[in-house]
Structures are given as C-alpha cells and as structure tokens.
Amino acid sequence: MNGNELAESRGLPRLAGKIKRALGPAGVFFRGFLEHPRMVGAIAVSSPAVVKAMLEPVDWANTKLFVEYGPGVGTFCQPVLDRLPGDGELLVIDTNPLFIDYLRKTIKDSRFHAVLGSAEDVEEIVKSIGHEKADYVLSGLPFSTLPDGIGARIAAATQRVIRKGGAFLTYQYTGAAREYSKRYFSRVDTSRVWANIPPCTLAWGWQD
Ligand SMILES: C[S@@+](CC[C@H](N)C(=O)[O-])C[C@H]1O[C@@H](n2cnc3c(N)ncnc32)[C@H](O)[C@@H]1O
C-alpha cells in the first residue's frame, strides 16, 4: 500500500475536505495570503462595516459598470450585486488564480465577470466586456506593498477609465491608497472604520 492509499484508508482526505469546508472563504483567503503575502496584504477579509460604509455614496440607479480590483474571495461581490440594477454589471480583476477560480465557482450571476489579470490593464479589460468607461472602481489592493511603480500606473489607468461623476473607492489599513486618490482625483472624501481588523481608512476620489 502506498502513502496515498494508506491516507485514504485512514479517512484523511475526508478530514481535509471537512476542514476546508468548515473554514470556507476565510480558509481560501488565508491560503492566498500564505502563498502571496505582499500581493494579498491582509490576513482577513473586510468586515461588514467596511462594506456598508464604502458602498454607501454610490448612485446605484445610474451604475451600468462597477469594477472591483482585488476581490479576493468576494467579500464585496454579493453586496455589490444585491445593489446593482438588473442591467448593471460587476467586473472583478485579480492576479491570483486561486481567488478567480473560487469566485467563478461560487458566484452564479449573469451580471458577473471575473477576470484573471492586473488592475494596470483595466482599460483593455473593460473594453473586452463591451464597455468604454466604468461608473465606479472599488479597490482592495494593498498599495503600500505592491511592487515599485505599479500603484501609480494603476491609479493613472483608473482615473482614465472612470466616467465623469463616478468615483474611485479605496479601503486600506494604511493611507497609501488615499494618497494615490489625492494625486489623481480633484476631490477626495475620507473616513475611518474602526470595526475592522485592523481599522481601515476609506477614500472616495470623485471624477469631477
Ligand atoms: C487585501 S486583499 C483583498 C481583500 C478583499 N477585497 C476583501 O474585501 O476582503 C488584496 C487583493 O488584491 C489582489 N491583487 C494584488 N495585486 C493586484 C493587481 N495588480 N491587480 C489585481 N489584483 C491584485 C490580491 O490577489 C488580493 O486578492
């Protein structure tokens, strides 16, 4: 009997499956962090308080395309889909295949597009699903730990892709994302949510 057969006979795969299911999305997210700590930049998903506060100022009735960078295991995805009108679409972009596979398997909504790629290429990706502009872009990217130059390229491309009246929504433990918004958007509102591990800085960069 080889090692696998021995494990099988002892019921180990079933136990591993049970542990994975019990951990659910939090387990998938933590695995993503262990494999790519600098790209993921957080050990836990955002709290419901962050999700609610971040999405509050969005004009949902006039949202045709909502883009999210770095959805991870989709903490924001269902809340966004719940608020989007029937003809609105949600496009998420993440560099991690573990997360994109997970989202494609768990979210079954015809308004949802999950793309494996980098936020730097947002303009091309938006065009690939038949749009010219996005109404809103939400970012969970860890701007302070991204490789040199990537943060500025992402912020510049985001400024070009958002329509007039739309906004760039960011949340981060540090103020790095807010500083990029200030550089690329003329008006930036900010807030702080304490009910998150750790507490988090929110910013809305408006395209005036
Ligand atoms: C802090 S985690 C996201 C947390 C999640 N949105 C939440 O609310 O819990 C950061 C995410 O950004 C992704 N990421 C990092 N660099 C990226 C890039 N250049 N383009 C798109 N996604 C990226 C990571 O794979 C990870 O999913």
Structure description:
α8 (150-161) packs across α9. Residues 1-9 have low confidence and may be disordered. 38% of the residues are buried. This protein has a 7-stranded mixed sheet with strand order 3-2-1-4-5-7-6, sandwiched between helices. The longest helix has 24 residues, at 12-35. It has 208 residues and is of the alpha/beta class. It is built from 9 helices and 7 strands. The protein folds into 2 domains: 3-38, no CATH class; 46-206, Vaccinia Virus protein VP39 (Rossmann fold). The radius of gyration is 18 Å and the shape is globular. 42% of the residues lie in helices and 23% in strands. The site of S-adenosylmethionine (SAM) has 23 residues, from α3 and β2.
